[in-house]
Amino acid sequence: MGRARGKSVILFAALVCALALPAQATGRERNRLWVESQNRALQKQRSTLSDIARRAMPAVVSITTQQAADVQAAAAGEEAQKGIGSGFIIHPDGYILTSAHVVEGAAEVIVSVLHPRGYVEEFEAIVVGEDARTDCALLKIAAPRKLPVLKLASASHVRSADWIVVIGNPFGLAHSVTVGVVSYMGRTDVTPNGRDGDFDYMQMDASINPGNSGGPVLDLHGDVVAVANAVNVAGQGIGFAIPIDIAKTVIPHLKSHGRVRRGWLGMSVQDFSPEVAEAFNLRRGRGVVVTDIVEGGPAERAGLQVGDVIVRVDQRRVRRAHALRWQVAARGVGRDVKFQVHRLGRPMKLTLKLDEMPSEETPLPTVASTAPGRHAGAPQPVVDDLLSPVPRSKGRRATPPPGEAAPGTGGSGQDAPAP
Q: Which residues form the PDZ domain (predicted)?
């Protein structure tokens, strides 16, 4: 009996000691009105995003531009209005990728680079080349050392809801970081400021503002998958970026020629749809429909006709007019392209040699026009570009007044002239 009582006393003492530990911990925090969380997963996620931004920061630059009139004003002692933008270093010798509208019409381009010791260095940049249709520009600065670079990945592996990190210079606030997810891949139904171009946008909800244009969009490996480019002025959290694959295609052209020498077919094409099929008396099928032929162009010389349905280009299936347009443009001048088409239901094979795309100001006579009454497509959202206050083109306002839409709309239902 005595032994049993002694054993129970020992057990009770052990239990009291066990309960005393949390009681003491609670006692140290008895004035706190909440329970502290130990959310290690959130800390790890934050650490990943922070590491991505920290590693990329030295290769992201701020770009300041002045138009010719502003340079003259500054020389006269007047306060000059400066444009702001972003960019990132892609080669240690000082090559920088940015948006073409950031440097459009600029007489002076200054690039600010973060020095390894933490201060900012400024360099005057030369514009090696620019391309308005993809809104890409290549700059070069003469730095006294090899510069850090960002690696260019591919947007082909990016999917909706993937996390992305954007670094840029919004409103002149250098090296600002925003985080979000990819909202949609392959937006071809919007056009920035009403300009026609070879756009295949990545839509994202990461916050971007004037000055972010030309900045990198990074995946969770810290590699560039897109270039921040445009924002919907009527919405929130609706930003757009150009996939880096497009930039990688045009960079060699910009370095070698200062511009992109696009392949040109001399025809217009449109997505296959019930309305298009009815307008051209087609049955059913897939591909893109030839809606216009330019007189004397490569398409006419090769024997293509209005109403032909293009189903393959060099053994690759064609499903969208926009994809065909970019595929041909990126091929270059003088290249042969093999087409598989359906004409009145019969398969045919044709070979075209690409000419160089004429100037957009040059009117081109057509052999045949699109059939009347075709479906033009519903109005699409207006997208405004991000550079402010540098004007996008002479005589065009940077932003519309309240209540007025930004100029221009786009729509994939409309004719897309193939290069």
A: 259-345
Write down the catalytic residue from 62, 86, 176, 213: 213
Q: Residue 70: pLDDT band by 50, 70, 90 thresholds?
A: low
The catalytically annotated residue of 70, 135, 198, 384 is 135
Catalytic residue among 62, 86, 101, 308: 101
Q: Tell me: the pLDDT tens digits for 225-245?
A: 999 998 887 778 899 999 999
Instruction: Reply yes or no on whether 213 is catalytic.
Output: yes
Residue 194 identity: G
Establish whether 115 is a catalytic residue: no
The pLDDT tens digits for 364-395 are 444 443 333 333 333 334 444 443 333 333 32
What are the domain boundaries of the chain?
Answer: 51-257, 263-356
